[in-house]
Amino acid sequence: MTLKIGVIGTGMIGRDHTRRIQNVLAGAQVVALSDYSSEAAKAVQADLAPDATVHATGQELIAANTVDAVLVCSTGSTHEDYVLAAIEAGKPVFCEKPLATTAEGAKRIVDAEVAAGKRLVQVGFMRRYDSGYVALKDAVVNNTGAPIMVHAAHRNPAVPEQYVTPMAIHDTFVHEIDVFRWLLDDDYVSARVTFPRSCAASHAKLRDPQIVTLTTAKGVVINTEIYVNCKYGYDIQCQVVGEDGVAYLPEPQAIKMRLGAKFQNEILTDWKDRFVASYDVELQDFIKAAAEGTATGPSSWDGYMAAVTCDACVEAQEAEGSAIIISNPERPALYN
Ligand SMILES: NC(=O)C1=CN([C@@H]2O[C@H](COP(=O)(O)OP(=O)(O)OC[C@H]3O[C@@H](n4cnc5c(N)ncnc54)[C@H](O)[C@@H]3O)[C@@H](O)[C@H]2O)C=CC1
Ligand SMILES: O=C1[C@@H](O)[C@H](O)[C@@H](O)[C@H](O)[C@H]1O
Q: What is the pTM of this model?
């Protein structure tokens, strides 16, 4: 069976996911496209999916008989309505992060999915599919002993002018929020943010870098540096300190060179290259589950918990240096 997919939002990542469904992955085909800008949808149709229909609205695409499953890749603030419509239509839906821009919005999705009685939503937290994080989790479970601390960094070379302080949480740190819950099999109980002096490359509305400290229910303390104007590359670092030893997230594979009197290897500069393989694996996983009428991987519950934690971290930014308590709602049985 070939799963017929409709893609809503054909910007940067919607285009890239369309490419991987059409050219890389097995078992699915993009049959429908929709974007707020019809030119953007038509451009992706012309370049990657000539047989796909272009729909005036995402709602129309979701309702189309030709569409078995939906990818939501539009601007974050539009995700909630589309995911709710897909659940209502009983169609599996892959939603890029964020699931919703508020915790209340994410909760509405959880409630709708619970009412539907089965998993229909996968959230685009692709790091859970990264071979490095999978190996790190294996080391944490089998080798290091119970985790005590995590030291991490999320560094981007530069960000656009419209990127402001809270976006470091909602747009960037959200990946760590999800992947550490999964890595440690734990939930967060508090968040604290401290700011060193801002780097010269930043601007008035962006305090960069910042350090977020999350404490988990099991007492693990996670320190993450978020530095989005680091200039030198896109660099994701993580080490987990356990009772018996320390485990490190592997560096991306790179050729070491002795060249021009230097011993060196290249550092990636683009997150698309850093996680290219994990995007492939996450979407293949979606296709497999959606073909059976359900969803797997990061759930609405994970998207909701990420949203709750993001809200607490933004509050912690505002309360600079003070801890903000995170309360964890009860998890519905659907997500156990
Ligand atoms: N998992 C990951 O690593 C990444 C996830 N993302 C997420 O993917 C989403 C899209 O990001 P990008 O592709 O970078 O943005 P983008 O700005 O390149 O594309 C967004 C597209 O959505 C369209 N759009 C806006 N409102 C719409 C509406 N109401 N209905 C349909 N289409 C609408 C825009 O016209 C645009 O073509 C964001 O939520 C972002 O956070 C983005 C980059 C990486
Ligand atoms: O989602 C992403 C971007 O939106 C974000 O800006 C980057 O910092 C992340 O690493 C990338 O995965």
A: 0.97
